[in-house]
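User: Predict the structure for this protein chain, please.
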Amino acid sequence: MRSLVLVFIALVMFAPPAASQSPDNMMHPWDRQFQPQQVVGRWQVTGWNPGTTRGRFNYQGVVVVSRTGRTFRVVWRIGKRRFVGIGILRGPIFSVAYNGGLATYIVRSEGLDGVWSRRNGTRLGREGWTR
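Assistant: Here is the predicted structure, written as structure tokens:
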């Protein structure tokens, strides 16, 4: 028992502090499976506004995603409107905060499928991205 305690003390003394593990250096097993190139590029987007029934989409446009270090710049063009956001890819989840809201997508082989809401929103819209 005493030797086990000594081993534990040695491990604690010589282990790097947890603070040295910055989020930029922390890797989850998902991070090896889902790569930035899976979201970077130009996408066709179709979507449904919050509170609408799923049927014919309410809007369509283009989304362009570019890498900016460990984050992504996301620019939607929907008709004459432009939305700009910052995204984070963590495993199969791509989350984007944009001017006035938040969107979360699941990365799939055929594209991205997600939900979004505006600031102070109480309902979710749906959105799909395809190449």
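The longest strand covers residues 59-68.
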